[in-house]
Write a structure and sequence with these properties.
The complex is a heterodimer of chains A (248) and B (530). Chain A is mostly helical and 248 residues long. Chain A has one domain (5-235). Chain A has twelve helices and no strands. In chain B, 49% of the residues are buried. Chain B contains 24 helices and nine strands. Chain B has helices spanning 25-35, 50-63, 65-68, 88-109, 119-122, 134-146, 161-175, 193-205, 230-233, 248-259, 264-269, 271-280, 285-294, 300-320, 322-325, 330-354, 370-381, 407-411, 417-426, 460-467, 477-485, 491-496, 499-502, 510-525, and strands at 40-43, 70-76, 179-185, 211-217, 235-238, 361-365, 385-393, 399-405, 434-436. In chain B, the strands form two sheets. Chain B has a five-stranded parallel sheet, with helices on both faces. Chain B has a four-stranded mixed sheet with strand order 7-8-6-9. In chain B, α10 packs across α12. By secondary structure, chain B is α/β, with parallel strands linked by helices. In chain B, α8 links the parallel β3 (179-185) and β4. Classes of the chains: A mainly alpha (248), B alpha/beta (530).
């Protein structure tokens, strides 16, 4: 005899069934974009797994876990949760890079003796993708850092609007657990920009250190994601053209 | 304020390429052929737009993925020189592993493949139920090999092209793909000739209904090797943009404005200057963009300056620097420059000042020395020449090939390049050309090209070629028999001989003798630089 299912479990399992059909529809209709997102994630992991023996590696892994939850939530129709997890992915990734350069602050923060401003780490002018910060780790990566800083900051603000329940954005959400192409498209686009920015962030922090000993895996990630950037092409031996500056 | 122009397709994000496409009839034909089933070799000078069209075909296939299910995969072999793989099998392993890597990535980005270790796996504690695909296994094995991670795997046991072909078929069957269109950019640019030959052999071996390879190459700097026959194993498409097309100037204008419409006012104001720059570029968009970018502000004086600087010096120094990459071809490269600068351009300039119909064409007899043809092909690589139609009749009904000389090089010769440019483009006629017969004195000294083994860096391939029996030469049965009768049993023997030596045989006159020598020179030319 099978034991009876508790009413709460039954309700949740019903909901789970609804989520299953949302997953099927979401995966079918967004296969290519989800694929792009997964590729960014795979490229990020290629870098993270090479940052061995450092405290920030754990934090970057936690960040990726949240990207996993975000993908799962968005595909299941849990849209607000998807934006929230995406925001956490951004926060943890940016924080880990900040802490990698501020060990004392990291220790205080880990011991709960100091606060940390997530928003500040993501700030396009003062954060860890600001040219001032990046330059100290990679002169060449600082050339394009601002555009990714801006992109990350935009994604962060957009996710925050959902987290804070801003009517302007939450109006678009379905009232029940169901599939919305409009919201899914917005979420995936945001997630792609966010993960592209995180990949650039990790490259700008560790590229100078890791690329000289790269076995080709890391440069393959750059070739795929940032082929259009001259400094990246130059760095990994792809064709570049001298830019003629007026008056020179 | 005018913004920076993109000189290279690589500067443009792949997904934005179609926004910059200014489509001519030629472009449409090329893009459609690139999207098709047949293997294609897209041949064109540097900067003529090969990468752009490969990317455009890729973007269109992506856009039309439903319902065609053709997966475009773009890759460049430009990083080849960085790979320290002196052993041929390592180089092939590197090429195949790179192809697998790009296919896996393209399939993942289409949602057709989910590699193990993704964030989705991670939240399940890494409990992936997915086994690596066959393609991923091959990639790992080959990567391990060329990176020497597991040197114990002998070269013979490594997966070859046939295994990749099967893996591609697997992928297509499991994912509902119709086929994979593999776009190989820089297929031969940066490889040493030996590696170029390996690539084309691989291209032939990969041929299957599930994968079609499209490779971009340069005229005159590509070694196909013995097993790959360009006309049989692929369709060759030559990418030239004829300046005589009616829409030429308008297309070139649109090409610049698509990138930066803030230049419209100055281009309208100095239309003559812009048009001269456009014609000077002789159908080469990168040269046009480069010269427009440096003509700042756009006006007559700046235009004259640009034409003089670029076409008198820079284009030539780029050509001469080819000798560093192909040291065995140095003599041909240097001769080509002397020939155009000394014998062709001054003559064309003088003619154009005094005749009603302008010309920028030269014609070379079909029986000219093979080394001359090769030197002219190298000039095509640098955009100094454009190879036109072969089989063109000239004076006394002799047959030969017509080449167009870069108009910028011609304009730059005049003290007022803008006015001279306007004069030439207004009355350019393909019927007017300078003719060079089969034995023109300007061909000296490369008409007697000698192969100097000591100057060739990696001479193993060349030595093997010289030992090859002479019956493989592209000659008639009669000519091959005569070579045998004369005792010239290897290509090396034929090459050392003089045309007079061949004429010792009955019924071999100057024309046949030249053909025999040309065949031997042609057979070794691509081996001159290793």
């Amino acid at each position: 005899m099978t034991s009876p299912v508790a009413p709460i479990a039954s309700q949740l399992l019903n909901l789970h069934e609804d989520a299953k059909s949302v997953i099927t529809e979401a995966a079918e209709k967004n296969a290519a974009k989800l694929g792009r997102l997964v590729q960014f994630d795979m490229d990020i992991v290629a870098w993270v797994e090479r940052i061995t023996g450092r405290p920030e590696q754990r934090q970057l892994r936690d960040g990726r876990h949240n990207l996993g939850y975000a993908i799962y939530s968005a595909s299941s129709g849990l849209y607000v949760q998807a934006y929230a997890s995406l925001r956490l992915f951004l926060e943890l990734s940016f924080a880990s890079i900040y802490f990698s350069a501020n060990e004392l602050h990291r220790r205080k923060w880990a011991a709960n003796r100091a606060d940390f401003s997530w928003a500040k780490a993501l700030d396009e002018k003062e954060g860890v993708l600001s040219p001032n910060f990046v330059r100290e780790f990679s002169e060449s990566a600082s050339i394009d850092a601002s555009s990714y800083a801006l992109s990350a900051a935009r994604c962060y603000r957009h996710c925050s609007e959902f987290v804070h329940g801003k009517l302007a954005v939450t109006e678009s959400l379905p009232e029940t657990l169901s599939y919305s192409q409009e919201v899914m498209t917005d979420w995936i686009d945001t997630a792609i920009f966010a993960s592209e920015a995180v990949l650039y962030l990790i490259y700008s922090r560790y590229g100078d250190e890791l690329l000289p000993i790269d076995d080709g895996q890391l440069s393959a990630t750059l070739e795929d994601a940032f082929y259009h950037l001259r400094q990246i092409r130059q760095r990994i031996g792809l064709p570049v053209e001298e830019v003629h500056h007026h008056g020179q | 304020m005018a913004s920076d122009l993109f000189f290279r397709t690589e500067d443009i994000r792949a997904e934005e390429v179609l926004n910059y496409l200014v489509e001519t009839d030629i472009d449409r034909v090329v893009i459609d052929r690139l999207k098709g089933r047949s293997p294609i070799i897209l041949r064109g000078s540097r900067g003529v737009g090969k990468s752009f069209l490969l990317r455009a075909a890729e973007a269109e296939l992506n856009r039309e993925f439903e319902p065609n299910h053709v997966l475009p995969v773009y890759l460049t072999f430009a990083r080849a020189p960085l790979i320290q793989t002196p052993m041929p099998d390592k180089f092939i392993a590197w090429m195949i592993s790179k192809i697998c890597n790009r296919i896996i990535r393209a399939a993942t980005q289409r949602g057709l493949n989910l590699p193990g270790g993704s964030a989705i796996d991670a939240i399940r504690g890494g409990r992936s139920t997915q086994k690596p695909s066959r393609m991923e296994q091959i990639e790992t094995l080959l990567e391990d090999s060329w990176k020497n991670r597991h040197p114990s795997v002998p070269g013979d046991d490594l997966p070859g092209p046939e295994v990749v072909r099967d893996a591609v078929e697997d992928l297509c069957r499991h994912t509902g793909l119709a086929r994979i269109a593999l776009f190989v950019d820089e297929a031969a640019h940066v490889f040493i000739p030996q590696q170029q030959r390996q690539f084309f052999t691989l291209m032939r071996d990969l041929r299957s209904p599930y994968i079609s390879v499209k490779a971009a190459v340069y005229p005159g700097a590509t070694s196909f090797g013995e097993s790959f026959q360009p006309t049989h194993d692929a369709t060759i498409l030559d990418l030239d943009r004829p300046v005589t097309d009616q829409d030429y100037a308008a297309t070139m204008r649109e090409l610049v404005l698509k990138q930066d419409d803030s230049r419209k006012r100055s281009i309208d104001q100095y239309g003559e200057v812009f048009d001269t720059l456009a014609y000077a570029a002789t159908g080469n968009p990168r040269i046009l963009l480069k010269t427009v970018a440096r003509t700042s502000p756009l006006n007559r004086r700046a235009g004259q300056e640009t034409i003089r600087e670029y076409y008198r010096d820079e284009i030539w120094s780029e050509h001469s620097s080819l000798a560093e990459r192909y040291p065995g071809h140095k003599e041909l490269i240097d001769w080509g420059r002397r020939f155009i600068e000394g014998s062709v351009l001054p003559e064309l300039h003088t003619r154009n000042l005094h005749r009603s119909q302008a010309s920028s064409y030269l014609w070379v007899h079909r029986d000219c020395p093979q080394a001359v043809r090769e030197a002219l092909r190298l000039l095509c690589y640098s955009s100094i020449l454009q190879e036109g139609i072969s089989g063109v009749r000239a004076t006394r009904s002799e047959v030969g090939t017509r080449y167009m000389v870069n108009l910028g090089c011609l304009f730059a010769l005049d003290s007022d390049p803008i006015a001279f440019g306007a004069l030439v483009r207004g009355s350019l006629s393909v019927r007017r050309m300078i003719e060079f017969g089969a034995n023109h004195k300007a061909y000296q000294p490369i008409d007697k090209l000698k192969v100097n083994l000591s100057e060739v860096e990696d001479r193993s391939a060349l030595e093997a070629r010289l030992q090859t029996p002479s019956h493989v030469l592209d000659l008639t049965l009669f000519q091959r028999q005569k070579l045998r009768e004369l005792g010239f049993t290897t290509i090396g023997h034929v090459l050392k001989a003089d045309e007079n030596d061949f004429m010792q045989a009955y019924y071999v006159g100057p024309v046949r003798a030249r053909q025999m020598r040309n065949a031997a020179v042609a057979a070794v030319l691509e081996y001159l630089s290793g």
